[in-house]
Every structure is written in C-alpha cells, then in structure tokens.
C-alpha cells in the first residue's frame, strides 16, 4: 500500500468512528443503550483500523524509510485524534444518560 492509500485509510476510518460514536449518542438519547453499545463497538473497530494504518507508517519509519510529512498526513492524524477524543467524551455522556434515565422515567410518571 502506498503512502496516500494509508493516509486515506486513516481519514476514512476515523470519519467512520466519529459517525458511529455520534450514532451511539443519538441512540442513548432515545433510551436505546444496547444499540448505543453496538454503535460504540463499531466506532472502536473503525478506530482500530485507523490505528493499524497509522502503525504501519510508524513501522516504515522505524525500519529506516523516510516518511514525508504532508498536509494530508497531518490532516489524517488530526482526524484520528479527534475521533478518539469525541468517542471518549460521548462514552461519558452516554454513561451520564444511563444514570439519569431512571430519574427521567420517574419524573415522566409524576
């Protein structure tokens, strides 16, 4: 795989991870915590694929191959870092939502 394909793999998978994380939040907001968990698993898998691509670049450099730092490469790293951060924050929001759900249901009955 050439450098551009690896970089695009990072960008695409990081984008997928963000989309799945936001999907999980939407599901949690509607009370579907099992669906939210499934979407988070998909986000984790996409982050794993992006991380694998990133690792392949690190291995190339560790083996002495010069890695050119382009704007697209930096962009891919930004996408991955943002996806990981958003997923982690969304996990915290989902947990808060899970803890609040009984209170919301109780308030709706009152």
Automatic annotation (TrEMBL):
> Catalytic residues?
75
Q: Which residues carry this modification: Phosphohistidine?
A: 75
User: Keyword annotations for this protein?
Assistant: Magnesium, Metal-binding, Phosphotransferase system, Sugar transport, Transferase, Transport
PROSITE patterns from the UniProt entry: PTS_EIIA_TYPE_3
Membrane in keyword set: no
How does the cofactor attach, per the note?
Binds 1 Mg(2+) ion per trimer.
UniProt record, GO biological process:
phosphoenolpyruvate-dependent sugar phosphotransferase system
Would the keyword Magnesium turn up in this protein's UniProt record?
Answer: yes
Extract the Gene3D superfamilies matched here.
Phosphotransferase system, lactose/cellobiose-type IIA subunit
Cofactor dependence is on: Mg(2+)
> From the UniProt record, which GO molecular function terms apply?
metal ion binding; transferase activity
List residues binding Mg(2+): 78
The record, for Pfam families, names: PTS_IIA
Name of the protein in its database record:
PTS system galactose-specific EIIA component
């Amino acid at each position: 795989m050439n450098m551009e394909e690896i970089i695009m793999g990072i960008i695409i998978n990081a984008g997928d991870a963000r989309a799945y994380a936001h999907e999980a939040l939407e599901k949690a907001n509607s009370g579907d915590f099992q669906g939210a968990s499934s979407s988070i698993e998909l986000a984790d898998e996409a982050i794993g694929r992006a991380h694998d691509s990133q690792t392949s670049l690190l291995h190339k450099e560790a083996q002495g191959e010069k890695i050119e730092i382009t704007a697209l490469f930096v962009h891919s790293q930004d996408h991955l870092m943002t996806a990981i951060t958003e997923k982690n924050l969304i996990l915290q929001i989902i947990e808060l939502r899970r803890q609040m759900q009984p209170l919301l249901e109780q308030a709706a009955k009152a």
